[in-house]
Amino acid sequence: xxxxxxLISGCILFLTACNNNKTTTTDSSTHIDSAKKTPLGPxxxxxxxxxPEFPTASLSMGVVKAEKVGTDSTKVSFNFxxxxxxxxxxTADNANKMCNNSDKGQHIHFIMDNGPYKALYEPKxxxxxxxxxxxxxxxxxxxxxxxxxxxxxxxxxxxxxxDEKGNLKKMExxxxxxxxxxxxxxxxxxxxxxxxxxxxYVWNCTLAPDGYKVKAEIANHAIxxxxxxxxxDKWEPHFxxxxxxxxxxxxxxxxxxxxxxxxxxxxxxxxxxTLAEQAxxxxxxxxxxxxxxxx
Length: 295
Fold this sequence. Notes:
The chain is mainly beta. Helices cover 13% and strands 40% of the residues.
């Protein structure tokens, strides 16, 4: 009888232990799943606080030279003239902007054919192009946190071609409305993901509620719900907020007063960029660990 009592007691203890373990596992799993599924708020475009103005700052094209390279390419050298603006200096309110800022200071955004810009901290640049090609270059002055200077004279557009022999020809200045993409660009880490600057440059047109506008399609490709379609009718910078982590994109289209895409060159542009919690691991090869958003 004593033996049966001991056996029954042992079974009860064993079943109790199993039930306790099962309960603990379920609670932990539920907690983890809940944390992963915590929903993000809607993606928004926030107004950027007023930035220091540079009404007399100017950028113009200096000497442009072309030098044939090999049999099918030409190296083009651009020299710019900067007045009333100091490159490599930190913009006064950079600490208060709470967004990505270049530690190298103010610079020039050099954008060829609406591709990703190159930040110039000296007023010159060289680029190699294929012979028999036509190009649209825009260059404009930028604050240290990459917001463009939008006052008259702070940008220059240069339309040119290179013939099959490598000769450069300056072409007629564009007369049609255009838009050039600037930010976001590259990879953003840590606190820089909270306020992601959306900025672009319009040319030969004015944005207005009853005039030209810019349609922006913003999306996080890793989180389907995190996307935003917006129509912008005032030329000013915005912060993209609450986009979430992962590979993201922005597509810009210049439209007329009726919402139709404007015909002509340089009226659409798009870019992919990444938002991450932390910088790439130090074990990553040097070429891949550069924070390109800071350039």
